[in-house]
Each structure stands twice: as C-alpha cells, then as structure tokens.
Amino acid sequence: MKRSQINAAIDKAMAACRKNNFTLPCFGYFTPADWKTKGEECKTIVDVMLGWDVTDFGSGDFDRVGAVLFTLRNGSCKDPSIGVPYAEKLMMFDDTVAEQEIPLHFHFRKHEDIINRAGGTMCVQLFGSTPDGDLDREHEIVVYTDGIRNVVPAGTVMEITTGNSITLTPGLYHRIFVKKGTGMLIAGEVSSINDDHIDNRFYETTARFCAVEEDEPKRYILANEYEGI
Fold first, then answer.
1. Buried b vs exposed e over 213-225: b needs ≥16 C-beta within 10 Å?
2. Residues forming beta bridges with residue 60, ordered by sequence position
3. Confidence band of 39 (pLDDT split at 50, 70, 90)
4. Distance between CA 68 and CA 62 in Å, rounded?
C-alpha cells in the first residue's frame, strides 16, 4: 500500500468515529512527532500492538480487500503480566467502491464477538473447518447472534445490523465485509487476547501486515511500525 492510502484511510476512519461520537484513547491521536517524545510509559502499547492497523492483506486492492483497524485493549499470549487478559478492536470498512472485506480466515485460539457498532450492514460469511484446516463445505454450522442459537448451511452470509453481534469460535472460517450502499461500517471486536502473528489461518495466502510505499510523509504510526520510531 502507499502511505498516502494509509493516511487517507485513517483520516476517513477518524471522521466516521467523530460522526458517531466515538472518541479514541489518547494514543489514537499521537502524531509521529508525539511518538518520538514517548518512552517507557508507553511500553505496553508497543508490546501488545495497540493502535492503528491498515492493511490490504497483500491484495494490492484496498478498496475491495482490506480494512482500517484500531486495537484499544490487548494482552500477551506469551506473558500474562503484560496488558490485559482480553482484547478490543474497532474495524472500519468503506462501502463507497465495493463490499470491502477481511478475507476468509479462522483463529486457532481466539474467541470473539463481532459487533455492528454504527453505520452500514455488516456481513459475515461462515464455513466450518476440516481437521487439516481446509474449508468444510458440507456440514451445517451452529453460530450464536446475541445469545440466539442459529443452525445454518456452510457458506451462509449472516447480515448483522447496527447494535447486533455474532460470536465466532476457534476453527470457524469467517469473511467479514460491509454490504455495499449501506454506509461506512464501524464494527467492534471483543475477544480473548489477539495475536496476529500466530493465531490466524487465512484460507488463501495473504500478507497480514503489508509493505508500504512511502509516497508521502506518514501522519500516523501503525502498530506494526513502533519499533521503527
């Protein structure tokens, strides 16, 4: 991705948050210059990768495959003394060009509730997984939406409207996207600890953190860039 795309995507996400009266924690507004003044007091933010995350998953087509994410809270799977024993994120999807998505994947250990916080209609496509990690295209899926039990065929797309949620369990393949024409989506994630380095199984090969072409100065530091400050 180009740095200009990342800057513009975060600007748009911040505008959506303001429109919906969602204020980010202080570090969400730190500039690169601000980060250069920070020290040991921000070590946990760096260690558990709180903050901005913009990715196209290596697709080269951010309008269709990608999202802006912001991790508000997190802990460490390796060291329970770091952070907290749970995680919370925002995930923002732009519907102006296409049904922007996070591609099909599952988690080995993370349980998560995905909540439509504001804006457009959130769509979640579901498949079970086989013992070798492939898609299970045959068996029905049991999935809960706000405590309500649903039994659905493999490949079902669940539409989640504002204020509602879906619970995703380990091994359950899911593709999350915004329904085009319904507005920019702000989704929330409340989960067990998030570790994007070891806990994701994407159905197709992806780059979780994309390479960046520096075509303009960075206005924000991404969570995977802290070590380079």
1. eeeeebebbbbbb
2. none
3. very high
4. 10
